[in-house]
Amino acid sequence: MSKRKNKTKITFLGNNSEAVTGSMILIETIDKNILLECGMIQTNSQIEDYKSNAKSFPFKPKNIDYVFINHVHIDHFGRVPKLIHDGFNGKIICTPITKALMKPMGLDSANIVRRDAEYLSRKRGKEIYPYYTENDIYRMLELTESYVCDDIHQLDDNISFKFLHNSHIIGACQLELFIKNESGHIDKILYTSDLGRINLKNHYVDNLEKCKNASVVISECTYGSIDKNIKTDRNKDLEKIKTTVEQVCNVREGRILIPVFSLSRSQQILTDLYLLYGDNPNFKIPVILDSPLIWGITKIYKEVLDKDNLDLFEKACNWKNVKFIKDYRESQLCVSDPTPKIILSSSGFLTKGRSINYLSEYIKHTKDAVIICGYAPPNSIAGKIKSGQKNISIDGKSYKNKCGITILNSYSSHIQHKELLDYLKDIKTNKVYLVHGEEKGKLQFKEILEEEYTKLNKTTRVISTVKGTVCHL
Ligand SMILES: [Zn+2]
Q1: Residues with Cβ within 5 Å of ion ligand 1?
Q2: 76 alpha carbon to ligand 1 midpoint, in Å?
Q3: Measured CA distances, 440 to 65, 76, 110, 273, 461 (Å)
Q4: Distance, CA 436 to ligand 1 centroid (Å)?
Q5: Domain 9-227+413-472: top CATH class
Q6: What is the pLDDT of residues 66-90, one digit of tens each?
Q7: Taking the domains of the chain in order of start, what are their residue ranges?
């Protein structure tokens, strides 16, 4: 950390300043050090990711006072346990739902870190120690304090904050951070983290609440590139699901795999299937959710949802067709079972987890099908299936892709290009820093947003960040 000045300094340290994972931004105020999130880098290479995430932080973790976590995706909070492992002893600040979800998500992550370390130890012939363990997860929970949205919370003499609702995933929020400098002037920083859809809401998420003004805005830019502005129509996707189920399960007596993320997407798709078929006594196809993490998260949903949301979720989970599988042996038997069924299993990108076991079985049969929901990185297995590749390599073995493929576009949990443009151009601010996007898309978005500001006679500057970009307030 640099020698403390009488002004606030923001440094874009994380991988999210030049890509879409690994969120981490350092704010040095007149007397405190704050991290805006501390997430894992996630690419498609297990070894590269392990190396990147095991690296030391570019500051002393014991000197950090507060870490804000806006939502519980691993690329936003997954390195907090390492921060603790390396000496952090400050406060972790998030919403109550995010805190509740940190336990299953954190323990699952510690398990993956341990398995990756074991794999690397075998590969290199020497012991590689995991860069955090379950103990760090429990310590993380002890250090975490939860705060509700919409109230201003005073952290100390100079720092206060407010969380704004966000439709990205359950419990997600934006952060408005108020920092008083030496002259008594208060700067307001808006950090959007990942933003959710405005015009097409997923189940169990809040409406996105808009910030009106800020000294500085730090915004995500996942769909900065205009060519990612895909038309999304939920009703069309629901029709596609119905057609696929009819053709595959009823006509061909085949099986359907829907690779999903354990958090949010699996609960969303389960609920949509329930709303499509729950009232139909003749619908006999089993809907199977196979993942211990889906089970853990489902339990938390039942604790944190209320009123109509809880009622709907309980109905979907208790639907007679639904079965949850936790046990690995039972999962293996289910993979080889030839009878018609719909499987929801993680991971969504088919990069790891039990969804790969189902794929390696279903891919061999023309009667079976895979439904891909939303975005998939082009070099992930889900991305390759989506682009129509005929030969798919799974765990080093090559398969001819014979199964049917259905692609759904409306299930993204990220704000779309036009929605983001409309949101940001209405905010009264001096500077907008773009993070969480590929460089090409960010530069394209910067140009378009600056044009919008010019049309509105605003002098707002837009900065496409790189690692090391600094902002002095
Ligand atoms: Zn996210």
Answers
A1: 73, 194
A2: 7
A3: 34, 22, 34, 37, 18
A4: 10
A5: alpha beta
A6: 999 999 999 999 999 999 999 999 9
A7: 9-227+413-472, 234-408
